[in-house]
Amino acid sequence: MAQLEPYVGDYYLWAYLPSVPAAVIFLLLFLGATIYHFWKLWKMRARFCLAFAIGGIFEVIGYGARAAAYNRTGKVLPYCIQNVFILLGPVLFAASVYMTLGRIIRSVRAEHHSLVRVGWLTKVFVLGDVLSFVIQGSAAGLMATGSNAEMGKNIVVVGLLVQVIMFGLFIVTSIVFQRRMHQHPTAQAFDRAIPWKSHLHTLYAVSVLIMVRSIFRVIEYAMGQDGYLLSHEWPMYVFDALLMFAVMVIWGVWYPGNLNFLIQKPASDTMSMHRPEEGLRCP
Questions:
Q1: pLDDT (tens digit, 9 = 90+) per residue, 47-65?
Q2: pTM for the whole thing?
Q3: In order of start, what are the domains of the chain with their CATH numbers?
């Protein structure tokens, strides 16, 4: 029977024995989802979704390390691996989410409706995502050292807050674009071959889920090592593992890979047979 082991002296990395069944279940779920995403990526040549698929690999590695940590709670390596990879996987999901909005806008030839210049749209949000990634990644390892653990947690909170703020701005940008399209739709907005609204709804869904997860993580680290969230395992599976698996499922079902094809087609080829009358609003 495994027992909780100290890392150094009376300092413990874990407040509980990590559940092997739970870790293995999510390892297999994320593995299946990741394989599916790489297949879709290859089939549709959607290179902008590569970061998303790599995020799935991060989740697989993270939960594999959690399962391995059951008999090694006093070892720093499995703790660091699971902490870093589970923490950073959603940041990679976010990168592909950010890259999708600009493609949606260009697919309906509505660059003039974008709150942020389309040429800068992806760059601004992905830059914020990279900043969040670097901050969280550089701090995650510090959390395994007793002397710097508190500082590491505080830095991770900063990285998570950057992610929450960027997602908030991203959702606002998406909503403004949709409202402007509703009021002044382009001809392509009426083309049933361009499922831009469906893709927008997918962005909203995964963005909200990642935001909820990030807010949970902020609260978790803000409460400290002795707080309820870090000292119990179930919240992490409910508010992180389950939500991120839902993100992979939603993204896989409503996969935005066709956007590259729609962007490359001439405008005349993507317009409906019936051009909308002037003054009509997008339904």
A1: 999 999 999 999 999 999 9
A2: 0.89
A3: 20-182+190-258 (1.20.1070)
Q: Is the pLDDT of residue 277 over 60?
A: no
Token digits of residue 160 = 């998570």
d(CA 70, CA 97): 34
Long-range contacts (CB closer than 8 Å, 24 or more residues apart) made by 40-47 = 40/252, 40/255, 40/257, 41/257, 43/257, 44/255, 44/257, 44/258, 44/260, 45/257, 45/260, 46/255, 46/256, 46/257, 46/259, 46/260, 47/260
| pLDDT band of 272, cuts 50, 70, 90 | very low
Reported as a single tens digit per residue, the pLDDT across 232-259 is 999 999 999 999 999 999 999 999 988 8
Read off the amino acid at residue 251: W
Q: What amino acid is encoded at 161 in this protein?
A: L
Q: What is the DSSP string of 41-62?
A: HHHHT-GGGHHHHHHHHHHHHH
